[in-house]
Model the fold of this input.
Amino acid sequence: MKFGIVVFPGTWSEKDTHHAVNGVLGQDAEYIWHGDEVLGQYDAIIIPGGFSYGDYLRSGAIARFSPVMEAVQHFADKGGPVLGICNGFQVLCESGLLPGVLMRNDHLEFRCIWTDLKVENASTMFTSKATASETLHIPISHGEGNYQADEATVDRLEGNGQIVLRYSDSSGNVSPDINPNGSINNIAGIVNERGNVMGMMPHPEKASEKLIGGDDGNVIFSSMIESFAASLA
Amino acid sequence: MPVSQETLDEIALSRDEYEAIVDRLGREPEPLELGLFGALWSEHCGYKHTKALLRTLPSSSERLLVAPGAENAGVIDLGDGLSVCFKIESHNHPSAVEPFEGAATGVGGIIRDIFAMGARPIALLNSLRFGQPDNARTRYLLNGVIGGISSYGNCIGIPNVGGEIFFSDTYKGNPLVNAMCIGLIENGKMASASAKEPGDLLLLVGADTGRDGIHGASGLASRAFEEQAEMRSAVQVGNPFLEKVLIEACLEALELPGVVGLQDCGAAGITSAAIEMAERSGMGLKLLIDEVPRREEGMTPYEVMLSESQERMLLAVTPGQEGPVFDLFKKWDLDATIIGNFELGENVRIYDEGVEITSTPVITLTDAPEYKFTGVKPEWLTKLQNADLSANPIPSESPADMLLKMLASPNIASRFPIYRQYDYHVQTNTVVEPGGDAAVLRLKGSKRGIAVSTDCNGRICYLDPEIGTAIAVAEACRNLSVTGATPVALTDGLNFGNPETADVQFQLTESIAGMSRAAKAFEIPIVSGNASMYNQSQGIDIFPTPIIGSLGLLEDVEKHSTAGFKSDGDVIILLGTDSTWDDIDGLAGSEYLDYIHGKVEGQPKLDIALEIRTQAACREAITDELIASAHDVSDGGVAVAIAESAVIGEIGASINSAPGERWDASMFGETQSRIIVSVKPENLAAVKAITAANNVPSIVIGYVGGDTLSFGDSISLPLADVDDAWKNGFSRATSD
Done:
C-alpha cells in the first residue's frame, strides 16, 4: 500500500507519520509538497500534524487554499481514504471535507498528554482493527482541539455513527472531567458521511511503538491497510 | 573629539575600553565602528570576565569530534555514525522585560546555534528561575515565560523534554531563562561556521532586518539592567514558523556542493555573525550593507549592523554555485540575498551604496579585553557556612504534615502543570518523558539512546560556589546515571551577578574551579557554554547559578530505568550511604531550611569519589537489568524522594525505621550521592554484590506495596494524600 503524506511549510509530523507507516508497518510512503497540483498514485492520503503556514490566522485557514488541497479534495471525492491528524483535522474542517470547527482549548492552554479514546465506531476503514468500545491510548498535542459544530450537525454525526473516537478514561467511560479540551460530547475523531475521510486530534503516529509509550496508534494505520487489502480482494 | 559618556553608556563600554580601542586602531573609531566594538566587546559576545576562567575547563575526550571553541559547540561521537552537539543559552534580561517574547526568542536562538552546525535539533530543555510565586509580578513573568517557550517550541516540532524550575527571592527582579538544545548529526555531516576561499559569497537568509533588538547584546545582556526596564524595544520578536522553515531549508542547503559555511545571527546580529565567520576563516570581509533587505524605511547602516531581528542565517557559498542555493530557498519561500564576500586581507570593510564607510581589522574587533581577577572569600560567607544548624527549632507540626507541606512546596511539587503545555512527544523518540530525573531519547536506526538533564542549586552555590558547582555537575550526572546512561559531556550556562564586584569575582573563580574539578573527576569534557552577567535584583546579585546541562549515552536504550516504584514486594535500597536517615549537616542549603525556616546557611559537602562510585554501581545494576526503579535523592531529601517514587509509580511503600529525634534533618537533609532504587527480592543479592564490588555503601530501607506511605511506626500517610500534595502543589502555589 502506498501512503501520500502532505507537507505544508510548518508541518512537523510528516517524518513521524512516515516512520509509523513505513518504518514500523512496512508500507510505502511518500511526501507530497503543498505546491503540488496533481497527486501521484496513492492508495491513501495523510495530512499530518504541525502548524501549517504558522497557523497565525486560524489553524488550517491558509492551508485549505494551497494547490495540493484541491487535489486532495478530488481524491476524496473519488472515494480515496484521507486521514487528517491534528492540524490535518483542522485543515479538513477548514476545507469543508469534514463538518465543524476546532476552536481553542477551553482552558486556553496547549495540552500534551496521553489520552484514552473510546472507539465508538469500529466499522470504519480507519478503525476496523479495533473492537467497539475498546479504548486506544494515544497522546494529544494541540492548543486548538476543541471540536464544535451546530446542534443539527452534532445530532447528524451522532445518528450516523460518524463520531469515531471520544475522550474517555481507560475503561471507556466518557465524562466531562476526562475531556482535555472542551470538545462537544468529548469528540476526538469523526468521519464524513461516506466514511472515507477521517479527522482526529490525537496523534496515532506518536503511539506507534512500545518503546515510546505504546503502539495503539497502529490500530488506525493497520485498519487503513486492511481496508485497502480488502478493496483489492 | 573625545566621545561622550552618554555614547559609551549606550553601548556599555568603559572609558578604559574606549582608550584601548583608540590605542589599537591608532585613531578615534568612527561612530559605526564604535557600535561594532560595543557589540563584540560586550560581556555577552566577548566573555570579558569569564574567558580566562573558562579556558581552565576540561575540554578533551576520546569522543570529541570537534573541539569546543573551534565551532559554536563541541561535537560528541555516539557511535553508529551518530554524533551530537548541545548548548545552553540565556535570555534572562529580555525575559524580565518582555517574558513571552524574551523566552520564545531564547528558544529560537539556541535552536539556530544548533542547526547552524548541520545538526537536526532533537530536543529542548529549559532551566528557569523566578522569585517566590506569591505575587502578581512573578506570576506574570512565570506565565509569560512558559507561554513563550510553549508557543515557540510547539510550533517548531522539537520536543521539550525536560529542565528545571526553581523559586527563590534572589531571582525576584531578574528571572533566569536558560534554554538548551541538542542536535543530532548523521555520518559526520557537520557544518562549519566559516568560509573556505577568498571570494566566497556571504548570503543572508530568512527574515528581513528591522529595528528590533538593537543593543540587545551590549545593553540588556551586559550590564545591570534594572534602571533599563524601559528597554522593551531591545527585545526581539520571534516567528517560530519562519524558523521551522529555515531549519528545513538550511539543512537541505548543506547538501548542496556550493554551501561551505553556515552561521546563525544571534546576539549582535550581522555584526557578530559575519565578523566571527571572517575571524574563523582567517579572511577579510566586504559587507554591502545596503543589500540587506529591511523591514522598514530609513534604517541607518548602524541599525542594520546591530539589529537582532530573529530567524536570520548567514551562508558562505562558493561563487558560481549560488544558483541552486537560491532555487532551494525559493522553494521554501525564503529570501536569500548576497550581502558581501570574503576576501584576502585582515579588515571588515562595510560599504553603503558603493562607498566604503568603515574598514576595521577583524582581529581588533573580536579580541575583546580579558579581565583577570582572583577571588577573596568574603567574611559574610564564612559566617553563613559556620552557622549552627541545630539551632533551628524542630517544627511543632507532625512529621507527616511536614512531609505533605514539603511535597507541595513550589520547588518540589510535580512540574506536570508546566510540561503538559510543551510537546514532548514530537519526533517520536521520547522513551522517558519529563517528570523523572532525566529524559531518555532513542536514536532511530541504532540500539543506542541518550539521556539529558540540567541541574543547578543556586542556594548551595551561594553557600559554597566551588563545592556547590561541583555538586551541580554531580547531580546533573546523577540524573543521567539513574536512567542507566553514562555521562559523556557537559555544557554550562553561567548566570552570575555583577562581575565588577569582589563578591561575584570570588563566586566566578570558585564556581569554575569546582566545575573543572568535578568534570575532571567524572572524566567528561565541557563542550560549550554561555555566560550571563549582571543578574541582580534590587541591586543585590543573584545567587551564583552555573547551570549544568548533561548528556549521557545508553548502549541499549531498552535497558533504562525510571523513577517510579513498580511492583508489590520490591525491596527498596538506598545507595551511597549506610543509614536510612540523614543527619543535621545535611540541612546545609536545603529546601527545608529555606522553605520552613527562611534560612540559607550551612556548609554543603560532596565526596566526589563516593559520588562517582555510587553512580557507576547504579548504572551497572540497571544495565544488568536488576533494577525496577531508580531515583536521585535531591531537593527535600530522602523522605521526599521516596514519596516521589511512590506517587510516580502509583504504589505505596513501607520504610522500616522511623526518623530519629531530629526527624526534620533525618527526613529532609540533602546529603549528596544518594540514590533510591527498588529491586525484585530475587535480585537483591546481585545488586548487593555490585555495590560491594564498587565499594559503595548501601542499606535496605523497606519495601514497595500497599496504598500508604509509612516510616516505621510513627508516620503513615494515605498515598492519595501524598499524591494530592505533590501533584496539585504547584497549581495551588501559583494561583490564589
Q: What stands out?
A: Chain B has 26 helices and 28 strands. Chain B has a mean pLDDT of 93.
